């Protein structure tokens, strides 16, 4: 790859990282191309050297947001068993994750946007949900596969719901309580 082509790939990647962080923090609907390009140190006109449209940027950025936001979920899964499950729950329902949505789980960050999307971004969202459920299935013990599947669906729903509500409420005490109590309840459900 030539120097100019390598620079173009690096710039494209920088734009995607900025857009993915913004999407996790603010959602996809309000993604402003001019703001993304300015943060990347580029002009608005340079956008079309990297993307055909805003829709292409959103699709690629949602894919990046989902992949980046799930890296630590996958890492928790690699620990396996109770240790991995505890790490996943405690990390997901932490004050840090609540306070840094731009670096957090894309599933929680873009759920409302994906409910209204019918394109490639929605397909990516569905696939990422399946991947996270697969991690949870591997971490949860149960008497039979159907019970484990149900517990995984419940756990993912509780994680995403609790972090979303904890971010939305304007009462810090209630926010902290949501995170702590849902984490405790999820861990209690999977006691050996």
From TrEMBL:
DNA-binding region(s) from the entry: 32-51
Keyword annotations of the record: DNA-binding, Transcription, Transcription regulation
Alphabetical list of Pfam families matching this protein: TetR_N (PF00440)
Residue ranges of every copy of the HTH tetR-type domain listed in the record: 9-69
InterPro entries the record matches: Homeodomain-like_sf, HTH_TetR, Tet_transcr_reg_TetR-rel_C_sf
Top-level lineage group: Bacteria
Protein name (Swiss-Prot/TrEMBL): TetR/AcrR family transcriptional regulator
Organism: Streptacidiphilus alkalitolerans
Lineage per the UniProt record: Bacteria, Bacillati, Actinomycetota, Actinomycetes, Kitasatosporales
């Amino acid at each position: 790859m030539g120097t100019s082509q390598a620079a173009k790939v690096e710039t494209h990647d920088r734009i995607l990282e900025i857009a993915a962080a913004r999407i996790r923090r603010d959602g996809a609907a309000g993604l402003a191309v001019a703001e993304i390009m300015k943060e990347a140190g580029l002009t608005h006109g340079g956008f079309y050297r990297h993307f055909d449209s805003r829709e292409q940027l959103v699709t690629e950025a949602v894919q990046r947001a989902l992949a980046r936001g799930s890296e630590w979920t996958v890492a928790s899964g690699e620990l396996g068993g109770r240790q991995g499950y505890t790490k996943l729950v405690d990390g997901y329902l932490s004050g840090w994750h609540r306070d840094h949505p731009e670096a957090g789980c894309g599933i929680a960050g873009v759920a409302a946007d994906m409910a209204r999307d019918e394109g490639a971004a929605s397909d990516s969202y569905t696939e990422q949900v399946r991947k996270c459920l697969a991690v949870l299935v591997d971490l949860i013990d149960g008497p039979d596969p159907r019970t484990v599947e149900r517990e995984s669906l419940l756990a993912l729903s509780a994680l995403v719901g609790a972090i979303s509500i904890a971010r939305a409420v304007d009462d810090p005490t209630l926010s902290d309580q949501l995170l702590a109590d849902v984490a405790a309840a999820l861990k209690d459900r999977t006691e050996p």
